[in-house]
Amino acid sequence: MNPFIQLGIRHDIVNAISELGFENPTPIQEQSIPVLLTGSNDFVGLAQTGTGKTAAFGLPLLELLDFEENHPQALVLCPTRELCLQITNDIKNYSKKMDNVHVVAVYGGASIMDQLRQIKRGVQIVVATPGRMLDIINRKAIDFSRVKFVVLDEADEMLNMGFQEDIDNILSTTPNEKKTWLFSATMPAEVRRIAKKYMDNPFELTMGEKNTGNANIEHEYYIVRARDKYAAFKRIVDFNPDIFGIVFCRTKIETQDIAEALIKDGYNADSLHGDLSQQQRDKVMKRYRERNLQLLIATDVAARGIDVNDVTHVINYSLPDEVENYTHRSGRTARAGKTGVSISIVNAKELGKIRQIERTIGKKFVKAEIPTGFDVCEKQLFSIVHKVHNVTVNEEQIEQYLPRILDEFKDFSKEDFIKRFASIEFNRFLDYYQNAPDLNASVEEGRIRERDDRGPRSASSGPSAYTRLFINLGSVDEFNRGDLLGYICNTSKISGRSVGKIDVKGVYSFFEVPNEDVEKVNAGFAGAEYKGRPVRIEVSGEGTSDRRESSGGGYRGGGERREGGYRGGERREGGGGYRGGDRRDGGNNRGGERREGGGGFRDFSGKPREDRPERKRRF
Ligand code: AMP
């Protein structure tokens, strides 16, 4: 007998899901369907995406509702438009052999009139994001007085997005006797609280994850406008001076174009695709393996099976057409027990694809912000400082030149000397990144919004609404950005939505919160300990607004770099085309970031250098 029949699902539904390829129930379906089918329990399911939870609640709903009646009987609330559409579509698929089942998707960013029309025609299942749902309730366009079941899907995410109050308001329009089923990937205190508030002695279920992939890979995505993609990509690379990465493109042409553009901009990159001869491919791979190449730009096919250890980043310059390819791509990093980051640079329309990948791999992506020009400069500066600190000196070889070098610097103070050394590369980045625009595009319920009209959401978007805080925990404490966000929110009881940029360093990190939340964070962390160590929070010396002011009104883009900035050992000859050379003239830079007047050598003040009084020379 079909195992779904054994669980109590009727034939016409089982036939429909068989066509979808559901042969056996997933663990969460196996355990929750019999409980939910009784229709008499509140329910809490701790489950990741990709575990089959939509069917776990969708199939019982189809069993329990009366489809001869045309009024709302079930309400499914979820955080995003993509998930809303996905759930609606799934339930429609499960019920395609049933009569008179009406499911409506209610979400922002689409015509409300269409949705109102569908509701008016009669629906039994409403799948909704909270904002638009409340709008429709406020218009008195829906009657929830006979709702029997409410599903809160991805409850943690809804709370993170600040929907608590909307959910309260929506649920207050539903009858007290309804049953509430809550699904959440994590169970922070806030979710516990709503479980307690809305439920009566719920049945609780915790499920493992399906196909979590490599647990050491952190998945991140950046949302940018399509025209900013190349510039954003370069900025991410510049922000990771020690990157040793594979960049995936969708086509050979794109692979070639990106590699050529990077090479032209002075990056240590090369391409790997099917139009190269075997010999050329071997040569590229040899350089990459030996780390004489920092960025390998590749197609899926050409990169299949690359087994280079220590790849720090996989960058999906374009998302793959097939979701499975994403797993193959990201599996090029975090090999042999190492950790790695898989980055996707997407535009708002591709967000649905990210969600689809999340479902397939059963892991959440972290939404990351394209670093500001300031962040890049800071990162590069300290990278140089560390390199100088750690460099191995060839005493024997340098010995003979030492007297001349010392003579050249004899009038320099130690501080002056250090500043000059650090400035060799730093100046170049300052120059490139003066007035660099914010490249982050953001999405809210399906609409793309420019940062500027979002209000002061984060440091990079608003003048001085955010405060940058220091915390004495970092990557050595095994925090990544997502973990740290969760930890901060749990401890200080602020919404994840209000936390701005998070910058995880080694033994410490920085994060930004709205000025009005600083007190709350301090109070929440008072006396807090992490693994027996007191946790310290301090206002970072560098306030957000100060940073911007000191930069003379922001940064400029650019981003071309010289080979000189990379780890030693790469060779300029050998099939790679031009690299290196001093590109300060900015004359042949490409990418969307370049601004007016290309070429003037500017410093932090934003004034062309030639216009400024010459500094007194000390030698
Ligand atoms: P979900 O967690 O509901 O987003 O489901 C994740 C993916 O697993 C979706 O693509 C579902 O279509 C699929 N799926 C759910 N249940 C089953 C099942 N019993 N057998 C095969 N695939 C399933």
TrEMBL record:
PROSITE patterns: DEAD_ATP_HELICASE, HELICASE_ATP_BIND_1, HELICASE_CTER, Q_MOTIF. One of its GO terms (molecular function) is helicase activity. It is an enzyme of class 3 (hydrolase). Residues 537-619 are annotated as: Disordered. Pfam families: DbpA (PF03880), DEAD (PF00270), Helicase_C (PF00271). It comes from the Bacteria. Residues 558-597, 604-619 have a biased composition (Basic and acidic residues). Residues 34-205 form the Helicase ATP-binding domain. Its EC number is 3.6.4.13. Residues 216-378 form the Helicase C-terminal domain. A motif (Q motif) lies at residues 2-30. InterPro entries: DbpA/CsdA_RNA-bd_dom, DEAD/DEAH_box_helicase_dom, DEAD/DEAH_RhlB, DEAD_box_RNA_helicases, Helicase_ATP-bd, Helicase_C-like, Nucleotide-bd_a/b_plait_sf, P-loop_NTPase. Keywords: ATP-binding, Helicase, Hydrolase, Nucleotide-binding. Residues 2-30 form the DEAD-box RNA helicase Q domain. Belongs to the DEAD box helicase family. This is RNA helicase.
